[in-house]
Each structure stands twice: as C-alpha cells, then as structure tokens.
Amino acid sequence: MEKLLEVRGLRTHFHTDRGLFRAVDGIDFSVGRGRTVGLVGESGCGKSVTSLSVMGLVASPPGQVEADAILFEGRNILGLSADERRRLRGGKMSMIFQEPMTSLNPVHTIGQQIVEAILAHTQLSPQAAKARAIEMLELVRIPSAKQRVDDYPHLLSGGMRQRVMIAMALSCEPALLIADEPTTALDVTIQAQILDLLQDLQRRLGMAMLIITHDLGVIAEIADEVVVMYAGKIVESAPVDALFADPQHPYTIGLLGSIPRIEVDRERLSTIEGSVPSPNNQPKGCRFAPRCPFADTRCHAEPPPLRDLGPEHRVACWKAPVELARAA
Ligand SMILES: Nc1ncnc2c1ncn2[C@@H]1O[C@H](COP(=O)(O)OP(=O)(O)OP(=O)(O)O)[C@@H](O)[C@H]1O
C-alpha cells in the first residue's frame, strides 16, 4: 500500500519553567493513501501534539519538533520553508479541530471564510470561489446552502458549524485530513451524523484521514488501523479488527475494558487505575509499568521496544503475547 504520510522518529518537546516536557518521545507511524488511521489514548498522551507537529503548527518556542523524517507523498516536509509549509496546510493537508467556534471568525460570514480558504490555495476568481463554497456546503449536507453561505457562524448549531469546518478543510481537495476530536464537543446523535459524513466524504473523495480521539467507539466505527499512544510513545498499532479482537498491550486491554456500555458516560476512560505520568517525569522502564497489573522488575527497569507480533500488529510490551495470556 502506498504511504501518503510517514512519520519517523518524531520527538516534540516543550521547554517550560517546570523543565523539559517530552510530549511526544520518538514515534513512528504511517497513513496509507485513502486509509483512515485512528490515534487513540488518554488525555495528555501526546495525540494533539503529534498532529500539530505533522501540520507544522507547534509554536517554537516553547515547542521543538525533531524527527528523522516526516514524509508526505515521499517528500520530507521538515525541510520545507515556512511558506511552503503554509501552502501545504489547507491545501493537500488539512485539519479540523474539536471546537469549530474557536476556528471560525465570528465577524465574517461562513461563505467569506470558505472563499478565503479557496482563494489562498487556488487560482479561482472570487465569483467561482463563492460558487465552490456553496458546492462545498452542499457536499457536507448543509440545507439551503445558497442562503446559509451568507450566515454568520453564531447563527448555526454546533453540528452545522462542524460541517462548515469540514467544508472549509475539504475545499482544496486534501489528500490527508487530520481530524482532532472532531465529534467530542457534539451530542451523541450529531456525533454519529458527523462520523457518517466524514466516512462518506472519504469514500467519495478518496482522501486519507488521521482521526485523533480518546473514544474507541469512534475508532471502531471509522478507522482501518489504530495507533495507541501512552505517555508520548506508541504502545500498540494494528488493523482495527485485530486490535479489537486480539489486543496485546495491557494498556489497550484496559482501554477496551473501559469502553462504557451505556452512552451516558462515554467521555472518560476511567477504569484503568492511576494516571498518566507527567511528561517531565517519566518512569525509567515501560511508562505504563506503574499502572500495569502484569509488570515485573524488567518492565520497571527497561523500556520495551515496539516490535512486530503479527501482520501489521506492533506492540511495545515485554510480556506480550504469551506471558500476558498466562498472567491473565
Ligand atoms: N505549549 C505547551 N507547553 C508545554 N506543554 C505542552 C504544550 N502543549 C502540550 N503540552 C503538553 O504535552 C502533553 C501532550 O499534550 P496533548 O495535547 O498532545 O495531549 P492529548 O493526548 O492530545 O490530550 P487531550 O485529549 O487532552 O488533547 C501534555 O502533557 C501537555 O501538557
């Protein structure tokens, strides 16, 4: 499968008053053309910092992004100038965030904002860009798009605003859409509609998606592959079916065990005892060891490498797979 995005050895650190925060500490993953990869983990594990690093949106200082390479369509984008990086963002590589109101400008109509995004990345005339903005609003199924295009953001519901953000992100036909918790701020019915829409658009436009979420329900519904992060590291990655049927890392097993069966408490992954270590004070061995029911002396002393367990199934755990099964 052709790799659209390949991240090698990504390390993103923040220099703070409280010391060096290693938010992302050496991760490798890739997204195939037209595929959906879900990046999952608890709050603070480095998911957003990973996506911002790929997009070139980490503020420096205090942030510092280093990597062996970040290849997009085979080209190392770390070497691009700020201008080239800006052209890539919102062009071939686009991003949507959790809270659309923070990304939409309240004093401009939604049409003006989509047109601006189109004009920044294409040669279209303002008139043609407006026509395209209306087409995009229709594509994301906003009713009466011709009228709504002149609305201000506050006139729209949260779900409609997220559709506008998606329209804007897709207006330049990106090859990769990064969606950071795209449905978290929405209520459950609207979440399902937005996920359906993203899936439908992905199929029709053939784009790849990197979906960042703490919600394994979202992953199960939309992802082809899953990357599980813990405390700045990848602990497991696998095709979605393999991960759900045969999770290997104790952290993943814990996450799956904590999927709430009723919808009222979907928000938190709360059944794993303890909390994520601080990024300026990581354990010496496996970072999950202090919370792991299977950890032994070696786990506390030596960090486990990410290794292949099966076809496209990688895990960073000294105990996986046989000993884990016996210990359980
Ligand atoms: N500008 C910054 N300065 C210092 N530390 C930061 C900065 N941005 C992020 N971090 C730290 O990096 C770590 C990873 O944060 P990140 O936002 O990527 O987590 P996350 O997994 O996306 O969590 P959430 O789901 O809560 O967004 C956190 O400990 C956070 O405090």
Shape: globular
What's the count of strands? Answer: 13
The low-confidence parts are 260-270
Per CATH, the superfamily is P-loop containing nucleotide triphosphate hydrolases
- The tally of structural domains comes to 1
CATH architecture: 3-Layer(aba) Sandwich
Subcellular location: Cell inner membrane
Family: Belongs to the ABC transporter superfamily.
Membrane topology: Peripheral membrane protein
Keywords: ATP-binding, Cell membrane, Membrane, Nucleotide-binding, Transport
Describe the model:
This protein has 328 residues and is α/β, with parallel strands linked by helices. It has one domain (3-92, 174-327): P-loop containing nucleotide triphosphate hydrolases (Rossmann fold). 34% of the residues lie in helices and 24% in strands. It is built from 13 helices and 13 strands. It has helices at residues 47-55, 82-88, 100-103, 110-121, 126-139, 145-148, 158-170, 188-205, 216-222, 240-245, 250-257, 297-301, 322-327; strands spanning 3-16, 19-32, 36-40, 63-66, 69-72, 75-76, 93-96, 176-180, 208-213, 225-230, 233-239, 307-310, 313-315. The strands form two sheets. The chain has an eight-stranded mixed β-sheet, sandwiched between helices. Strands 1, 2, 4, 5 and 6 form a five-stranded antiparallel β-sheet that branches. The chain is globular, with a radius of gyration of 20 Å. The two termini are 36 Å apart. The relative contact order is 0.14. The model is unreliable at 260-270 (pLDDT under 50). Adenosine-5'-triphosphate is lined by residues 14, 16, 21, 23, 41, 43-49, 62-63, 214, 279. GO terms for molecular function: ATP binding.
